[in-house]
């Protein structure tokens, strides 16, 4: 069912007021929302088009890099400050989609995009994430792109965003409005595990994300993505790493995985196993064993575990040279 009304707010405050009203849905770049509408997904009675909101330039503020949520993916990926200080984010964005889609898609929209599971996208199939309690065909008939971590009886679809994986490793925070109230939250809290009571994100109802902040760091970072083809393909497995070192020894490590879990996946308790040395294959394997201790691959998804392990080994070797 298509929306019967479109609204074009001119300010963030006006957009937040509209989104607080029942049935109002935000549209940023439209690369997901409009796709789903064409496929027959039900939308609310009103679409709130955010394309006319003023956008702030990328800037440093209070010890953090501040990124306007309305900036295009291309603008963020190509920004010198991002390329120089946060290469993992630039690499993740550039690996995420075609140039045309990156030009249209926004930073905030990417983080809030819907699932890419075929069962979710086709309304002729039941799907718990689209209609809670209707069932999950992937439980009995898993797809090769499904997750091996964070699976529940409610859903096993892999989270689709490359950008979110890099931002998780970079300790990003979200900023926004709920009506007239400002809110802030760690990106690590944005994506709940699938459950009957959980939405696709943990954002407050009617929230408008206005910015994402990244604490400034001198750490090296990078992103590695493995996929079935080189252009416009979702990750079979991906990894973002952020490393600080002293005299060739790792003093801090943040590792996040994509394509293999129902959320961007990070295991902070395992990261300590990488400290005190440069790249070490055994320590990396110990980290992976702990990080993937709850993995539950099936025949259709068994390829993901070795892909993710190999991606991390390759990335750590690159970053510690």
TrEMBL record:
InterPro entries: CO_DH_flav_C, CO_DH_flav_C_dom_sf, Diverse_Substr_Oxidored, FAD-bd_PCMH, FAD-bd_PCMH-like_sf, FAD-bd_PCMH_sub1, FAD-bd_PCMH_sub2, Mopterin_DH_FAD-bd. Residues 1-219 form the FAD-binding PCMH-type domain. SMART domains: CO_deh_flav_C. This is Xanthine dehydrogenase family protein subunit M. The lineage of its organism: Bacteria, Pseudomonadati, Pseudomonadota, Alphaproteobacteria, Rhodobacterales. One of its GO terms (molecular function) is FAD binding. PROSITE patterns: FAD_PCMH (PS51387). Keywords: FAD, Flavoprotein.
